[in-house]
Amino acid sequence: MENWHELFDSMALVLFVLFVGLLFVSYARYLLLKVGSRRLRNQIRDIRKNSHVTSLKSASGLFDRVLLGEINLLIEDLLQERKKLYQDEESIKEIVTGISHDFRTPLTSISGYVQILLEQNSRSTPEEREKYLQIIDGRSRSLAALVEDFYTYSSLSSFDIKPKLENNNPLTALRAVLANYYEELENRFVQVQLNIPEEAYLASLDRVYLERAFGNLVRNALNHGKDFFAVGVRSKDEYIEIVIRNGLPDGLKLDKEQVQKFFERNFSVNWAKGATSTGLGLPIARTLLEQLGGSLTAEADEHSVSMICAIPLLPLVETTSASLETK
Q1: What is the structure's pLDDT at 108?
Q2: SS3 149
Q3: What is the pTM of this model?
Q4: Within the chain, which residues score under 70 in pLDDT?
Q5: Could you tell me where the DSSP H helices lie in the chain?
Q6: How far out from the chain centre does Cα 86 lie?
Q7: What is the domain partition of the chain in residue ranges?
Q8: CA distance 242 to 196
Q9: What is the strand order of the sheet 304-312 is part of?
Q10: What gap in Å lies between CA 308 and CA 131, rounded to an integer?
């Protein structure tokens, strides 16, 4: 009987020791978790304050590593969104500054010439008044074009308007645009070369969109190009590339960084003295083509710059090439 009492006492002592040990381990773990939680809270606070901290780290090793990994992925996504938001805010500031300058310049000019007419109405000759009125008319047209381009760019960027897609030949739109500008191209450039295949391609597109994009590219060449203008078509497996190329003004060198920024709204190049444009033609052309499922890129060498329009095609039929060279 005494043996049973001794055995019971021994087991009770062992259980007590185990209980105390478990209680100590649990309390120690609680303290570690508390310390770890405090450190995680501090790290989260640092992240919220735009600190250099970009992920959570558990020094205690007691937290679920998989859970921490998922939280860190979420933090990474949020930081990327924060970075993008900051870049968008900076871009908007630059755009607003550019818009203010773009509008102020023609308005100041119009106001100045109107003031001259008012002050010198009795003293100026009919020829002088006609000259001032023509300048005011030109500045007014430039301002109207600027407003139209800003409206178009804003509508396209916010998807307020959508293309009406129909099966059509993209080269039909290209020929129509080149026909409209043909006389201006001949007067502007020493050499005009058009290499366009016969009608055979088929794409799902909005012809109004496509003609507007091609028109912007041709006007860009007219405003900034020199010496020669060329259009060519390169056939790929599932798309075609329409390349619009023009010479560069004397002394103008374009590096790769400038070429990559052609389609940014707030980027401008001093192409040629006296050249005028809203600066929105290329961004609008790229947006139009992208909404048709295509793309617009630019390349430049020492003497020329090329705009490359890629347009996805429906099943192709055989084509033959026709070449027209003038001047």
Answers
A1: 83
A2: helix
A3: 0.58
A4: 1-9, 31-33, 35-36, 43, 48-67, 91-92, 94-99, 101-102, 122, 145, 149, 153-161, 199, 265-279, 316-327
A5: 2-48, 65-119, 126-157, 170-188, 207-224, 256-260, 281-291
A6: 15
A7: 2-63, 96-157, 166-326
A8: 9
A9: 295-300, 304-312, 239-247, 226-235, 191-197, 321-326
A10: 41
Fold topology of 96-157: Helix Hairpins (1.10.287)
Q: Which two tokens stand for residue 223?
A: 């405003």
Q: What is the pLDDT of residues 236-254, one digit of tens each?
A: 878 899 999 998 887 777 7
DSSP state of 58: -
Structural contact between residues 200 and 318, judged by C-beta atoms closer than 8 angstroms: yes
Task: State whether CATH 3.30.420.10 applies to domain 166-326.
Answer: no
Fold match flag (96-157 vs 166-326): no
Cα angle value 104/140/289 (rounded, 5°): 85
Per the structure block, which two tokens stand in for 204? 């799902």
* Amino acid present at 256: K
